[in-house]
Specification:
Length: about 120
């Protein structure tokens, strides 16, 4: 009877990343993930949005949880969910449209566009 070779567990050692200036420095942080304290915004009827800034080894992103009370009446609830999904899509595009070039006034100043040709 042939014996199987013992399984060898691969150990991946990932380097620890340091805390950021803005991370919570508590249970929300891990070895390679750093998370900000919760940032809240409240809306009508108990609605609440919670945003966290997250830094990982490979990316930075915002994590958002939103609680929106909706109607118990199905047609209204469906309409509300549709509006919510539409606005989430708008949010994704609006945030991604803010790029370094849009914030760099030196690059957005384009004096040549205001010049008039010599007569
Ligand atoms: Zn941290």
């Amino acid at each position: 009877m042939k014996r199987r070779p013992p399984r060898v567990m691969a150990h991946t050692i990932q380097p620890e990343t340091p805390h950021t200036d803005w991370c919570a420095r508590d249970h929300r942080c891990g070895l390679n993930v750093h998370t900000s304290p919760d940032m809240y915004t409240d809306g009508p009827l108990g609605a609440r949005g919670v945003l966290n800034r997250v830094h990982t080894e490979t990316s930075d992103y915002a994590e958002i949880r939103i609680r929106i009370p909706i109607s118990a009446r199905e047609p209204i609830a469906r309409k509300q969910l549709g509006v919510a999904l539409h606005l989430i899509r708008e949010l994704l595009y609006a945030v991604s449209a803010v790029r370094p070039a849009a914030l760099d006034h030196a690059r957005t100043d384009r004096p040549a566009l205001d010049r008039r040709p010599a007569a």
